[in-house]
Amino acid sequence: MASGIVNIRRDVDDKFYRYRMPLLTTKIEGKGNGIKTVIPNMADVARALSRPAPYPTKFFGCELGAQTTFDEKNERFIVNGAHDANRLRELLDVFIDKFVLCRSCKNPETELIIIKQGRNEDIIRDCKACGERTGVDMRHKLVPFILKNPPVKMKKGKKKDVSGAADGVGGAANASPEDGAEENDGNESDDYLTKKIKAEAAELNDKPTLTDEDWSADTSPEAVKARIKALEGSMAATVLGGDDDGSDDDANSPYSVLGRWIDEEKDDVEDPKAFSIAIFKKAEELGIGKKHKTITVIAQALFTDDMVNEINQYGALLQKMVTSEKHQKALLGGIERHVGLAHAELIPAVPKILMALYQIDVLEEEVVTQWGTHVSKKYTDKETSKKVRKASEPFLKWLAEADDDDEEEDDDE
């Protein structure tokens, strides 16, 4: 797990858990009676939780018996007094349990809704994962604050500008998530990056290959017995439904087993081709060789901060396992998690990463264009999704220009 990123449910010890947030940080300012605890990244934490930042800040005040102040415009959130960071993180876990997690399925993908019943008002957690609506403890001191400051209802159905100006998708690779609604004035930078992409594309033309014999499974009695055992162990996760059946928070799911195995083995790899074959056979043994979610786990666990070069090294594995549009989308989701959550320093390299995948015929133009122009919170929080997809703009521009060139050549003929 990357430094500074933790699971929203910190009782889930699984680095492939879908729901992540920044680790809460604190800064003590002032002296004497004027001492206070500033929470510099409260806005980022709150965005990951899909809650207004004043809510957890005020919750801290309620629990600690301290006054709180917040300036949302400047993202400055303060709890009076000197408070240890670990103590506030523990309280944040309590806030998440009481006001974020679905009481039924313990999924954090909920929305707070205020329901009026005569003169009374109730606060409900509406879960987008399981569909259940569960109440909060209306006796808590935070409840009156929420009722006086109700959450803003998210507008749905608003048509998004394909260029991304309306929702933060597109723009320069180093743009911040907050400037997504502003006009992009970085055209020169984009043109420069596009030229670099064209120049570097030639370096990625060697497509990795392995023979069918390389991929064939070991048919010895011992290997067959091991595969049967692995299949029995993963039956609950693979037979009861598809790839998305709640295995994100199951540390014993075949996906988590595969991810941990890759993570443990990759540091000792001397031959990427041999390791590619080993990964393929391991996935087959776990009964998830053809599942599209397996590609998400591989993308998240296999690559490091040298991802651009590693894509070519493991290209044969990707070519073997990415066999449908769903697999391509799962691969892009794994890249979102790897780049957005674990290796933020790779965000400017997203165009190169996409180009490397495109050059080995793993990504199709329509799929990556659709992905790059539509923000989603399926694999990460929405803000992280915006950052990663925004960084893809130079590559999408290159694709569009390449199409225009092709059309002009057809017209000339």
UniProtKB/TrEMBL annotation:
Record carries keyword Protein biosynthesis: yes
Compositional bias of kind Acidic residues: 179-189
SMART domains, per database record: eIF2B_5 (SM00653), eIF5C (SM00515)
GO biological process: formation of cytoplasmic translation initiation complex
Disordered as annotated region, ranges: 153-189
Keywords on record: GTP-binding, Initiation factor, Nucleotide-binding, Protein biosynthesis
Single GO term (MF): GDP-dissociation inhibitor activity
Domain W2: 248-409
GO CC, one annotated term: cytosol
Record bears the keyword Nucleotide-binding: yes
Gene3D superfamilies: 1.25.40.180, 2.20.25.350, 3.30.30.170
Pfam families, alphabetized: eIF-5_eIF-2B, W2
Protein family membership: Belongs to the eIF-2-beta/eIF-5 family.
PANTHER family per record: EUKARYOTIC TRANSLATION INITIATION FACTOR, EUKARYOTIC TRANSLATION INITIATION FACTOR 5
Protein name (record): W2 domain-containing protein
Organism, scientific name: Ephemerocybe angulata
